[in-house]
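Task: sequence in, structure out. Protein: Pyridoxal 5'-phosphate synthase subunit PdxT.
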Amino acid sequence: MVKRVLRHSFFNERINMKIGILGFQGAFLEHEQHIRTLGHEAVDVRYTEQLEELDGIILPGGESTTIGKLLIRTGMMEPLRKKIEAGFPVWGTCAGMILLAKKLVNDSTAHLAVMDIAVRRNAYGTQIDSFDTRVLIPEVSKEPIPLVFIRAPYIEEVGEQVKVMCCLNGNIVAARQQNMLVTSFHPELTEDSAFHRYFVNMCQN
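Result:
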């Protein structure tokens, strides 16, 4: 513990972070690779006890209903919700965005329900409607970032404390509320680590 405090005190520009990736489903291995590429430790999270050792957590894409059921079955739902409400950094990509939303436009079931956003599931259609593009998001990178959309949701409404980070064709696809970050798209499926670096910086701060 003392060693960790010293590293935070004297080497703020380069802190070795321990980032968890919920490992129930989805592209968690790809997220882990990006975190390791940036020189930080990636943890495959499947048990509640692991939450206590992390500096932040990524909720990857997949099937939100299935992931939600697994969070309940493993007993992780309530401990994770309480940690996020207390300021624990979290990033939800695609299904992870759905898990964090307080309201789902076309579904009566909310999961963690911690972020003040209303999300429409499968807003971009089916698997065959998947697409990719490049967009400049100044807060994240000075260069355009590749965005990959796969059966993606988007945000229809945001609360007063939510900062919209990116819109695409009039739809909100990236946003942040204090310690919570969400993206409709999948940065982990590209070779660009800008969003992962942004989230690591959130965890450091």
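The chain has one domain: 17-204.
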